């Protein structure tokens, strides 16, 4: 509960004129410190602090929008705050940096906030056909559920051969 209070407090602080990178990271790190640790199986190596270098790395990858130039300075806003917190959450859930841009790019602030607090929905992709695996309302599919770790399940179509443990 303290994470939500800290998030609300940081959200209410002035964002209209933008903030410096140091101020943005101070707010992000304050909230991230209050977030509960990753569930069992999460990546315990993920730091709760964002450093300027780390932040810029995720901007370069396209996970976080670039700051806005105002003369000689670069300012950041509420959207950057949400994106940085979401990247931190995705890191703790072991989402690869390669996958993050497709999960974060083009999302509204409301979608980003929902993903931050409610989780991320992953969609299986058929790499060979380069399409999402979706079924219409009339389709009948039988799925097998494999529990990978607490809070993580793998749903597989029974039409596919069972993967080897190394593939899981």
Question: How would you describe this structure to a colleague?
Answer:
By secondary structure, this protein is α+β, with helices and mostly antiparallel strands. Helices cover 39% and strands 14% of the residues. The protein has helices spanning 2-12, 21-34, 52-61, 78-92, 100-104, 109-118; strands at 68-70, 73-75, 125-126, 131-132, 143-149, 152-157. It has a two-stranded antiparallel ribbon with strand order 1-2. Helix 1 runs antiparallel to helix 2, helix 2 (21-34) packs across helix 4 and helix 4 packs parallel to helix 6. It starts with a helix and ends in an 11-residue tail after the last strand.
Characteristic key phrases:
168 residues, alpha+beta, two-stranded antiparallel ribbon, 6 helices, elongated
Distance between the termini: 34 Å
The backbone outline, from C-alpha atoms, is elongated
Radius of gyration: 19 Å
Q: Helices and strands: which structural class?
A: alpha+beta
Q: What about the largest sheet?
A: 2 strands, antiparallel
Helicity level: 25-40%
* SSE string, helices as H and strands as E: HHHEEHHHEEEE
Unreliable spans are: 131-140
The overall pLDDT, averaged over residues, is: 78
Sheet-strand content, in percent, reads 5-15%
- Given the structure, what is the number of helices? 6
Q: Write out the strand line-up for the largest beta sheet, numbering strands in chain order.
A: 1-2
How do the strands and helices of this protein lay out in sequence?
Elements: H1 2-12, H2 21-34, H3 52-61, E1 68-70, E2 73-75, H4 78-92, H5 100-104, H6 109-118, E3 125-126, E4 131-132, E5 143-149, E6 152-157
Antiparallel strand pairs: 1-2, 3-4, 5-6
């Amino acid at each position: 509960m303290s994470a939500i209070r800290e998030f609300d407090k940081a959200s209410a602080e002035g964002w209209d004129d933008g903030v410096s990178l140091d101020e943005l990271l101070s707010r992000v790190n304050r909230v991230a410190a209050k977030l509960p640790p990753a569930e069992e199986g999460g990546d315990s190596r993920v730091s709760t602090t964002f450093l300027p270098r780390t932040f810029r790395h995720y901007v370069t990858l396209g996970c976080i929008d670039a700051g806005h130039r105002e003369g000689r300075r670069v300012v950041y806003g509420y959207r950057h705050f949400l994106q940085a917190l979401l990247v931190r959450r995705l890191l703790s859930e072991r989402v690869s940096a390669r996958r993050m841009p497709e999960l974060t790019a083009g999302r509204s602030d409301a979608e980003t906030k929902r993903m931050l607090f409610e989780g991320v929905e992953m969609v299986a992709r058929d790499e060979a056909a380069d399409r999402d695996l979706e079924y219409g309302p009339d389709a009948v599919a039988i799925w097998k559920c494999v529990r990978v770790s607490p809070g993580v399940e793998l749903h597989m179509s029974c039409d596919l051969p069972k993967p080897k443990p190394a593939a899981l």
